TrEMBL record:
Protein name (record): V-type proton ATPase subunit a
GO MF assignments: ATPase binding; proton-transporting ATPase activity, rotational mechanism
BP term (GO), one: vacuolar acidification
Top-rank lineage group of the source organism: Eukaryota
Similarity comment text for this entry: Belongs to the V-ATPase 116 kDa subunit family.
Entry's transmembrane regions: 421-445, 549-567, 587-605, 639-656, 758-779
Membrane topology recorded in Swiss-Prot or TrEMBL: Multi-pass membrane protein
Subcellular location: Membrane
Natural source organism: Zingiber officinale
Coiled coil: 99-126
UniProt function note: Essential component of the vacuolar proton pump (V-ATPase), a multimeric enzyme that catalyzes the translocation of protons across the membranes. Required for assembly and activity of the V-ATPase.
Length: 821
């Protein structure tokens, strides 16, 4: 224990020290003070008006004004988006303007845009009506001319065949009614109009049923798309002409047209009038088109002018709204002249906050300064880690599991090393690793455009970043190569093939007795000897190697997690957790799986043929039995018996002492304090928050604590087995990646390359590239990422990490700007 006591407390791996502070601000300087604190972004305000609704707070009217201005700004953004106007916001050219002036200007711009929109809608509606009228004139005129010609020819033929009388004076009235001008003499009428093409069949069927077939329907495509007045989209329409007879049929047809949204237009029967009317409509259309173009150009210029300042205005309104929302979290003092606020801030930031409050007092010309002092609190402070672009992605991964408690050991510090390492172990191919490196370099070069809002983008770039941006480009390549490519190079795999770094240490046997690989020189210096590739024992050898290496890595990382629990307990001054949690856990884990890791290393170093499965199984089934040929070193049997006894003793050591010691401490602490205080009208303890009598004391429940300790002990004992087995995923995913790479390489690329046809070769190369990109580089990358995430969340962090804290969320304008971006 002296060794552990002499180790540093590792406080630089913990969250920042936080202070609960109180601010007493005069009303005239409160707004400036909150604005300066928002620019600083290092103070998290507490809501002192949580019992009030938003409409009962002091600055509700100011918040409503800002909300109304935000609505107008969203209206402008929507209009710019619909118009397709390209704007170039320039945050650096922010115009100096106060909130009242901005409110007036926004109202003026909104009124102008609404007026332009109304005029444009009226002109567009008139234009659409004239365009439809023109299409009806063109199409319906042909129907009428054709109908009249056919009717005149039919009447003439009927007269010639039926009557041979040449003298017109001898014709009867019925015969005279069949002379030209048939539509007027016979009572035949028509209605022309235009309807959406999708409604054409239903419209015709409804007309037929309403008139009982006493109509003639003719239609033709309009030939041009017409804007729909409701949706504003261009739709296909159909021009129709309905011939009928009688006023009753006319009334029915008009009602059906109105129900189906068909627009009816009058068309003269004479061709001359049709041509003249078409010419007049075309002239009006050209005039309206020029007017619409001029109006659109003027509107786009106005929108472009608004768009150039829209970003600045939006940020300004959001800042003001956030300031008033923060002021609504403060309380008035009894004099109603000062606002009182409370909040959390990092201890190191207190001088900066005091300087910002001093500047706010000067800027507001206040005669009274702002009071800033510390407060005592039994509440747990928020958790705040100072991160940079390199460590932020790892911190987000840890926070996705749970935010650390205040001053709890931060797993993200260790994940910076272990996460890329375990990812590379599962990926296991340095050739594909280079492809990921080039892909991440592309993301880095386009970082400003793509941003850093997606966790996957952060993950791909996180091994390539460091604190100082001046060294980013050089360090990114080095870090990614060392963490991913170098780790994968231990396997020697490059796109499914084992590559030579130096000369091999093996030769193939030449006869049946020496079939296989024969070692003829010292071991291969780095990674896996490529001579194993294609041999009979390749798969058993690599599986054994990767499986044992997975167990070694798992035992090391789980031991690291238990050791971190010791530093947590030491930092928080909890000796019970050290004596009755850390010590038995470290003994139990290493008595079983630490011993297994030791056997693996000894077997590798000595070249023994011992069966480790047999050793571990019979360590429990027959601890006194003879090891025989499975003995790796002298005294192994006695060591196994000792470790087994320690593992058995560690379980009750974890389970029983701690609950009983806590019960004893509780009894001693509150012995003789069974009587409480009697409240009187003169003394109300509920209104004395600083009184020692008001301190919150939780009831001690021995059964609950014992059950919790029992669950924790059982979870650790069972988890030691399951977590060690879970690390075998390092072997499984590496095996899957290598075998898939081999299958794609041999069965796609080499098979296609064996043909003389260039088409087959190109097709095989294309399929191989597709499989490599989407399966090996994308799906396998995602799979390795998720499994590395699970190993950190479950197998590593559950040994010491609680993750039940809450984040430090300061009032900051920078967060508003990032959100707007």
């Amino acid at each position: 224990m002296k060794f552990f006591n002499d180790l540093p407390p590792m406080d630089h791996f913990r969250s920042e020290n936080m202070s609960l502070v109180q601010l007493i601000m005069p009303v005239e300087s409160a707004q400036h003070a909150v604005s300066y604190l928002g620019e600083l972004g290092l103070l998290q305000f507490k809501d002192l008006n949580g019992d009030k609704s938003p409409f009962q707070r002091t600055f509700v009217n100011q918040v409503k004004r800002c909300s109304e201005m935000s609505r107008k700004l969203r209206f402008f953004a929507d209009q710019i988006s619909k118009a397709g106007v390209t704007t170039y916001p320039n945050p650096d050219s922010e115009e100096v303007i106060d909130l009242e002036q901005l409110e007036i200007r926004l109202s003026e711009h909104e009124g102008e845009l609404l007026e332009m929109n109304r005029n444009s809608e009226k002109l567009q509606q008139t234009y659409n009506e004239l365009l439809e009228f023109k299409l009806v004139l063109l199409k319906a005129g042909r129907f009428l001319g054709s109908a009249q010609n056919h009717l005149v020819m039919a009447e003439t033929e009927l007269v010639e065949n039926t009557y041979s009388i040449k003298n017109e004076d001898r014709l009867s009235l019925l015969e005279q009614s069949m002379q030209p001008e048939p539509s007027k003499k016979a009572g035949l009428r028509f209605i022309s109009g235009i309807i959406c093409k999708s409604k054409e069949l239903i419209f015709e069927r409804m007309l037929f049923r309403a008139t009982r077939g006493n109509m003639f329907f003719n239609q033709a495509p309009a030939g041009e798309q017409v804007m729909d007045p409701v949706s504003g989209e261009m739709v296909h329409k159909t021009v129709f002409v309905v011939f009928f007879s009688g006023d009753q049929a006319r009334s029915k047809i008009l009602k059906i047209c109105q129900a189906f949204g068909a627009n009816c237009y009058p068309v003269p029967e004479e061709n001359n009038k049709q041509k003249q009317l078409t010419h007049e409509v075309s002239l009006r259309l050209s005039e309206l088109e020029a007017t619409l173009d001029a109006g659109t150009c003027h509107r786009n210029k106005a929108l472009a002018s608004i768009g150039s300042q829209l970003w600045n205005w939006t940020i300004m309104v959001k800042k003001e709204k956030s300031v008033y929302d923060t002021l609504n979290m403060l309380n008035f003092d009894v004099t109603k002249k000062c606002l009182v606020g409370e909040g959390w801030c990092p201890t190191f930031a207190k001088p900066q906050i005091k300087e910002a409050l001093h500047q706010a007092t000067i800027h507001s010309n206040s005669q009274v300064g702002i009071i800033f002092h510390d407060m005592d609190s039994s509440e747990s402070p928020p958790t705040y880690f100072r991160t940079n672009r390199f460590t932020n992605a790892f911190q987000e991964i840890v926070d996705a599991y749970g935010v650390a408690r205040f001053q709890e050991a931060n797993p993200a510090v260790y994940s910076v090393i272990t996460f890329p390492f375990l990812f590379a172990v599962m990926f296991g191919d340095w050739g594909h690793g280079l492809c990921l490196l080039f892909g991440s370099l592309v993301l880095i070069l386009r970082e400003k455009k793509l941003g850093s809002q997606v966790l996957l983008f952060n993950f791909l770039r996180m091994p390539l970043e460091i604190i100082d941006y001046r060294f980013v480009k050089s360090f990114r390549v080095k870090c990614h190569l060392s963490q991913h490519v170098s780790t994968s190079y231990l396997y020697g795999l490059c796109g499914s093939d084992l590559k030579h770094a130096v000369s091999t240490s093996y030769l193939y046997g030449l006869d049946a007795q020496t079939a296989g690989l024969i070692k003829f020189r010292d071991p291969y210096p780095f990674g896996v000897d490529p001579k194993w590739r294609g041999s009979r024992s390749e798969l058993p050898f690599l599986n054994s190697l990767k499986m044992k290496m997975s167990i070694l890595l798992g035992v090391c990382q789980m031991n690291l997690g238990i050791i971190l629990s010791y530093f947590d307990a030491k930092f928080h001054g909890n000796p019970l957790d050290i004596q009755y949690q850390f010590i038995p856990q470290i003994i139990f884990l290493n008595s079983l799986f630490g011993y297994l890791a030791l056997l693996i290393v000894i077997k590798w170093c000595t070249g023994s043929q011992a069966d480790l499965y047999h050793v571990m199984i019979y360590m429990f089934l027959d601890p006194f039995g003879n090891l025989g040929e499975n003995q790796l070193f002298w005294g192994q049997k006695e060591l196994q018996m000792l470790l087994l006894i320690l593992a058995v003793v560690a379980v009750p050591w974890m389970l029983f002492p701690k609950p009983f010691i806590l019960k004893k401490q509780h009894t001693e602490r509150f012995q003789g304090r069974t009587y409480g205080f009697l409240g009187t009208s003169e003394m109300d303890l509920d209104h004395e928050p600083d009184s020692a009598r008001h301190q919150h004391q939780e009831d001690f429940n021995f059964s609950e604590i014992f059950v919790h300790q029992m669950i924790h002990s059982i979870e650790f004992v069972l988890g030691a087995v399951s977590n060690t087995a879970s690390y075998l995923r390092l072997w499984a995913l590496s095996l899957a990646h290598s075998e898939l790479s081999t299958v794609f390489y041999e069965k796609l690329l080499l098979l296609a390359w064996g043909y003389d046809s260039i088409i087959i070769r190109i097709a095989g190369l294309a399929v191989f590239a597709f499989a490599t990109t989407f399966i090996l580089l994308m799906m396998e990358t995602l799979s390795a990422f998720l499994h590395a995430l699970r190993l950190h969340w479950v197998e590593f962090m559950n040994k010491f990490y609680h993750g039940d804290g809450y984040k430090f969320k300061p009032f900051s304008f920078k967060a508003l700007a990032d959100e707007e971006d």
